[in-house]
């Protein structure tokens, strides 16, 4: 019984980490879209918020064997608009 409980708890925790990872990844995508809009409008591109979330994702990824995300550069945002 305790082995089953341990496995269930582990799976539950992994599911929580994956849910958090997905939320952070969605937040990152929203921030990327905002940066793309800033670029389209000729405004200064702010990537700090994107990369803050990226760091959180990568910390979670490293601890729980999930795929990391690349840090975003201003050049990457500009290339999306071309």
Question: What would your notes on this structure say?
Answer:
- The chain is mainly α and 82 residues long.
- The chain has one domain (2-80).
- Helices cover 77% and strands 0% of the residues.
- The chain has 3 helices and no strands.
- The chain has helices spanning 2-40, 48-64, 74-80.
- Helix 1 (2-40) packs antiparallel against helix 2 (48-64).
- It is elongated, with a radius of gyration of 17 Å.
SSE diagram, text form:
Elements: H1 2-40, H2 48-64, H3 74-80
Helix pairs in contact: 1-2
The biggest beta sheet is recorded as: none
Question: What is the overall pLDDT average?
Answer: 93
Helix coverage percent: over 70%
Total helices: the number is 3
What would a concise description of this structure say?
The chain is an all-alpha fold and 82 residues long.
List key phrases describing it.
mainly alpha, 82 residues
């Amino acid at each position: 019984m305790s082995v089953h409980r341990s496995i269930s708890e582990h799976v539950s925790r992994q599911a929580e980490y994956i849910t958090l990872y997905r939320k952070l990844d969605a937040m990152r995508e929203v921030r990327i879209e905002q940066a793309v809009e800033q670029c389209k409008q000729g405004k200064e591109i702010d990537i700090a918020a994107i990369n803050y979330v990226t760091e959180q994702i990568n910390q979670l990824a490293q601890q729980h064997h999930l795929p990391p995300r690349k840090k975003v550069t201003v050049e990457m945002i500009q290339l999306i608009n071309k």
